[in-house]
Amino acid sequence: MGLALALTAAFSWGAGDFCGGLASRKVNQFQVLLLTTSSSLLLLFLFALFEKESLPAGWDAALAITAGISGSLGLAALYRGLSLGNAALVAPVAGVIGAIIPTLTGLFFEGWPSFLVLLGFALSLAGIWLVARSNEKSPHSTRSGLGLAILAGIGFGGFLALIAQMKTEDIFGPLVLSKLASLVLAIFLIWMRRLPLPKPGVSPVAIVSGVLDAGGNILYLFATQFIRLDVAALLSSLYPAATVLLSGLILKEKLSRQQWMGVSTCLLAIMLITSG
Predict the structure, then answer these.
(1) CB neighbours (10 Å) of residue 150?
(2) How many CB atoms lie within 10 A of CB 190?
(3) Burial letters for 200-212: b for 16+ Cβ neighbours within 10 Å, e otherwise?
(4) Mind listing the pLDDT tens digit for each residue in 154-167?
(5) Mind listing the pLDDT tens digit for each residue in 92-121?
(6) What is the dihedral of CA 99, 101, 107, 110, to 10 degrees?
(7) What is the pTM of this model?
(8) How many CA atoms lie within 13 A of 270 on its CB side?
(9) CA–CA dist 173, 190 (Å, integer)
(10) Across the chain, which distance is largest between two alpha carbons, in Å?
(11) What is the C-alpha to C-alpha distance for residues 149 and 66, in angstroms, rounded to an integer?
(12) Which stretches of 24-86 are DSSP H helices?
């Protein structure tokens, strides 16, 4: 049960990223961010009510808000990067950097990581190099996708590093507050760009993306009740594979043999970093 839940969480996260990128092909990424955040917030709020959890206060509240802002900026960059049609580059690179940053934070507070983590760092550089090699037909798209993937990874890594510093044992309350911060930021970014507030019907796939993202969080937390935390984290870290596979199956994005090697290397690096 625990293994199935962790793998389902990975697929849910990866499918959510794919849906967000798909929605951003027709709707501005900040409008997509607002729609995904709204549906995700609603689902998490219902679970917080069911578990009778309250919003964090004090320093924990500050961490949750900052984490929410970091994560939402990461999502906006990811959606824009995926909308360029280069999921094989964007998803693995964002996943690798998102795994490295909380590990480096642990290095600062807890000392040097294990050999597996260091090996994961080395493999991640090789994997990024393989997936990011310029495509002669669209070198600009490759460069843009790589930059957005790096920004997305920084945002995701910042979220994980910040949320891990919280002292509260509650789960859904902090996630609700972080999503509220994401919602406010999305509204602000839309206002800054003088865009209209999107109606739910403008992009149903964006609504689905938010539900899948929150569903991944919930499935992961349930998985940790059946199996070891490190095993759950290891399996759920495979979520970029779902994004790449769905892009290939549905959008017919083609990957070269070298790109497949890069994607596989990045996924292995994520697993090593997470397990360490």
Answers:
(1) 19
(2) 18
(3) eebbebbbbbbbb
(4) 998 888 888 878 88
(5) 888 888 888 887 777 777 677 778 878 888
(6) -80
(7) 0.86
(8) 29
(9) 26
(10) 55
(11) 20
(12) 29-51, 58-83
